[in-house]
Amino acid sequence: MDLGSSINLIPLTVLKKIRDFEVKPKRMSLLMADGSPKRPYGMIEDIMVQINNLRFLVDFVVLKMEENAEIPIILGRSFMKTAKVIINVDEGTIVLKDQEEEVIFNACNTGQQAQVKKTSPKAAFKDAPGTDT
Questions:
Q1: DSSP symbol at 95
Q2: What is the DSSP letter of 121?
Q3: 35 CB-contact burial (10 Å; exposed 0-12 / middle 13-18 / buried 19+)
Q4: d(CA 122, CA 119)
Q5: Which helix (H) or strand (E) holds 97?
Q6: Higher-confidence residue: 40 or 115?
Q7: N or C: which end of the chain has fewer CB within 10 A?
Q8: Phi and psi dihedrals of 77, rounded to 5?
Q9: Which domains does the chain have, with CATH numbers?
Q10: DSSP 14-71
């Protein structure tokens, strides 16, 4: 995860290793961390990303770039909003949530097993159109 990135990014080489996805053309210009401008190869939508037991649909900008084995993809602020990420600098933890679970990582120890907790389901769909309440 990268707080400095507003988008989710995947190198084209990583995408090709995973599977064939429909890459849609995307007209935009990216400003990389080193200040250099880049034009993306395209965009893929609704890709399932699994982190421990949590699953999220994520849109990625696809970029022709050198692959980094340690960081194959970049999950930016848009993902963090979807995953309801909470970063606690004081405790050194990163929490990701969905409707039923939360996963807690130790931000200082990347090799640590994540702690998984059940959360109470939220009544998010209680008043959804087409349902009886």
A1: E
A2: P
A3: exposed
A4: 9
A5: strand 93-97
A6: 40
A7: C
A8: -60, -30
A9: 9-118 (2.40.70)
A10: HHHHH----PBP----EE-TTS-EE--SEEEEEEEEEETTEEEEEEEEEE-----SS-
Location of structure tokens 């194959």: 72
In a 3-state reduction of DSSP, which class is residue 91? Answer: coil
Over residues 70-109, the pLDDT tens digits come to: 778 899 999 999 999 999 999 999 999 988 888 898 877 6
Contact 67, 13 (CB under 8 A): yes
pTM of the complete model:
0.73
pLDDT score, position 121: 40
Using pLDDT thresholds of 50, 70 and 90, give the confidence band for residue 44.
very high
pLDDT for residue 39: 92
CB 63 within 8 A of CB 12: yes
